[in-house]
Specification:
Helix content: 25-40%
Order of helices and strands: EHHEHHEHHEHEEHEHE
CATH class: Alpha Beta
CATH superfamily: Acetylglutamate kinase-like
Radius of gyration: 17 Å
Bound molecules: adenosine-5'-diphosphate
CATH topology: Carbamate kinase
């Protein structure tokens, strides 16, 4: 199926922890800088970008020079506090190099369950767009308990895309897209290029556990993209290892897995 994203204006881009870190857990500054440059360049083109960024805990672990993330909740929440501000420092530094500013929004499920908060969120995003500020969104991990947890940023980015009426949702991961089975375990796994049948879902075998650094795994990406597409938003899962990936997608190249948005 031909992909035409030439009319896309508002884009929500989600980047996972595995894209922001090296396998040793350290931050991949090269990729963060390139991602930031691309977001700013898209703003220069007149597009409106929203970044949903994971990586706070990993950034906190880096800042405090710990060998690995704590294996208890309050420890991880403390890492998220340290890491979220560290990550924002890096994004702001990178954006500033290209003439832009970041604006941070930390959300929980409560926001999406409450009409007034939802409205406030939409107004704030619109206002940030007005000032060409790039919203950087994450779940408020430091105070989230199970009851108010969204759980993963794939879901969060899909909810955000729907709330801000995005034209396109891009989920960047460490994998080329959705395969019929986990390509890290099966050499013969085949990439699913396009998903049009949103009702019957994607037929794939997935390793239920997420990667060591990531949290969601591929199922959460499939659900996030399916829900966005059902709401009429085109969605693509693609590999951040290709530094040009955002441009490739916007040019309509056949990269990643494309969930075709239902006709509005
Ligand atoms: P992120 O940190 O980017 O959110 P995750 O590590 O949570 O990413 O999820 C992506 C991982 O899901 C891939 O690296 C891959 O090993 C695994 N995976 C399992 N099954 C599949 C599948 N059918 N297609 C693609 N990836 C899969």
């Amino acid at each position: 199926m031909k992909r035409d994203f030439s009319a896309v204006k508002r884009i929500v881009i989600k980047v996972g922890t595995s894209s922001l870190t090296y396998p040793n857990g350290k931050l991949n500054l090269h990729r963060i800088d390139r991602l930031s440059r691309d977001l700013c360049d898209l703003e220069n083109q007149g597009k409106e970008v929203v970044l949903v960024s994971s990586g706070a805990i990993a950034a906190g672990v880096n800042r405090l020079h710990l060998p690995k993330k704590p294996d208890y909740v309050s420890g991880r929440q403390a890492m998220a506090c340290v890491g979220q501000s560290a990550l924002m420092e890096i994004y702001n530094k990178c954006f500033a190099d290209y003439g832009y500013n970041a604006g941070q929004l930390l959300l929980t499920k409560v926001v999406f369950d409450n009409p007034e908060m939802k409205q406030n969120f939409q107004n704030t995003i619109d206002e940030m767009m007005h000032y060409n500020v790039i919203p950087v969104i994450n779940e408020n991990d430091s105070i989230s308990v199970d009851e108010i947890k969204l759980g993963d940023n794939d879901n969060l980015s899909s909810l955000v895309a729907r709330l801000v009426n995005a034209d396109l949702l891009i989920l960047l991961s460490d994998i080329d897209g959705v395969y019929d089975k986990d390509p890290k375990e099966h050499d013969d796994a085949k990439l699913i290029s396009t998903v049009t049948d949103l009702e019957n879902g994607v037929k794939c075998e997935a390793n239920a556990k997420a990667s060591l650094l990531g949290t969601g795994g591929i199922y959460t990406k499939i659900t996030a993209c399916t829900n966005a597409a059902k709401a009429g938003i085109d969605a693509v899962v693609a590999n951040s290892q290709n530094l040009n990936v955002i441009y490739d997608i916007l040019e309509g190249q056949k990269v990643g897995t494309y969930f075709v948005g239902a006709k509005k």
